[in-house]
Specification:
CATH topology of the largest domain: Growth Hormone, Chain: A
Largest sheet: none
Radius of gyration: 20 Å
CATH superfamily of the largest domain: MFS general substrate transporter like domains
CATH class of the largest domain: Mainly Alpha
CATH architecture of the largest domain: Up-down Bundle
Order of helices and strands: HHHHHHHHHHHHHHHH
Amino acid sequence: MTASRPLQLRLIWGLSLASVVIYINLYMVQGMLPLIATSFSVSPAHATLLLSVTSFSMAFALLFYATLSDKLGRRKPLLWSLALLVVADIMLIWVQDFSALVAVRLFQGILLAAVPAIAMAYFKDLLDTSVLLKAGAIYIGANSLGGIAGRLLGGLMTEYLSWVEAMGLVTILTLAGVVGVLMLLPRLDRVRIRRRQRKSAFGLADLKGFGLHLGDATLVKLYLLGALAFMVMVNQFSYIQLHLMQAPFHWGKFQVTLIFLCYLSGTYASFRSAKWVARLGRQPLFILSAVMMCVGSLVTLGDTSSAIVIGFLLSSFGFFTFHSVCNAWVAQRAQQHRAKATALYLCSYYLGAALGGPFLLPFWQYWGWSGVVAGSLTLLSGVIFIVVMLQRSHGPRSPLLDAAG
């Protein structure tokens, strides 16, 4: 039994707003690299590791929230994590050195994990199958909008505000967003929780769902795809900022964050992805998306401002199409322990983000931007190989027709 249409709409927009709040907080540091480097006396390249640290703690916290939401329901863990996120933002106002900043960002990563860990399972619980793909596309689109907003906000704050002023503004925006989510999110929760289960501690029974999904070869391939694709996407955006601040470009602190507007092509792709999957099928769309990411990376080697912008527009379009298909397929394939299935996907996804920075760092240090592109293409070749394996085992079926995957 699904929720009424008004409640479904409130759920979609409530989780989408929560997503915007989460991704502003996650990615604001990516637009603040010059301010962080100056305020905490580290190099810009060293500052890029802050995103890796947060993504790392976020990745493993996703597994915890997936289990917690199966025990306590979807709504409570999500709202509590958002409330504590406001507290973490207040803590950032008072950090004095880089090690303290890393510690708070590690804590933030744990809190940021709740929404992505729970959202798709929440949708699956309350939405019709016909609405699920559209809701997932809107939610992923909100992810990209939150990412754009966070990075541009970070760039603006770097240009005009001190660290304390910037974190004060972020705290106010987060609090406003959390209040909006609280008002929008319906109280309805379909998770059935037995009294004994609610009181029991976490144990081996809670790990059963993770083992079930890790034993599914298709899901494991989807997890690897998410990790490899995101290793490339998010970290390319970090290193291109450093490249654009160097000769011959000499882009300014805020100007360099405008490259994140290329995410808008990904936002459009996210909203359209459900229709494209229905028309083309999953695997052909996977191949097309991966090729677009490869082509986009190669185009940036033209090393002009226009070539870099065009390349990142292509890469963003390809990546978000790819991620939308992956995310929806995982949610549809999991017939039980749904939150755990999506949490494993997102765990691998954010581990990819965390590992991608250190993986590409030596490429950047020795060969600059061309080295980053070479490292990216190495990872994307692995993406294409796994997609071909999926093609052989499944064929180009549409998830609209095959909800079990």
